[in-house]
């Protein structure tokens, strides 16, 4: 298994060129305030971290994680798990979307492309000074390490979660070929 962490390159927002690898920093021109909405997800939340969430296709009970002094109830979730699930799914979709433009064919079997996402609540609850830290572990079977890294670079540029967290949430991405 090959593994490589390249956080600093990703955080600089470098763009991958199919011809020679990395090029100039990527600049985003989408104005999210005025851009047309492609989809809107809504959630009705009551009870904060120990409450309930209702959405169009979602009904979830929340619990405070044991690590935060809560009960960590089985069958319930928390905001960090929901964020990790959303980020992982979005990032993997971005990988699948950008791969053809790089001349890379992603695996057709779902189990051959995996994104493991970890979202940590960091800081001080006592001082009410908290934030998030994210680690993504991307595992793909059947791709050369260089091709996988190109796909991940490009996915980082287009994934809405990556764009939303850029320069605000410390994020590391590690790639492994299976």
Index terms:
alpha+beta, OsmC/Ohrsf, 32% strand, GMP Synthetase, Chain A, domain 3, three-stranded antiparallel sheet, N-terminal domain of TfIIb, four-stranded mixed sheet, OsmC/Ohr_fam, 178 residues, 4 helices, 2 domains, OHR, OsmC/Ohr family
Can you characterise this structure?
It is built from four helices and nine strands; from the N terminus they run βαβββββαββααβ. The model is unreliable at 1-20 (pLDDT under 50). It folds into two domains: 41-77, N-terminal domain of TfIIb (Single Sheet); 78-177, GMP Synthetase, Chain A, domain 3 (2-Layer Sandwich), CATH 3.30.300. By secondary structure, it is α+β, with helices and mostly antiparallel strands. It starts with a strand and ends with a strand. It is globular and about 50 Å long.
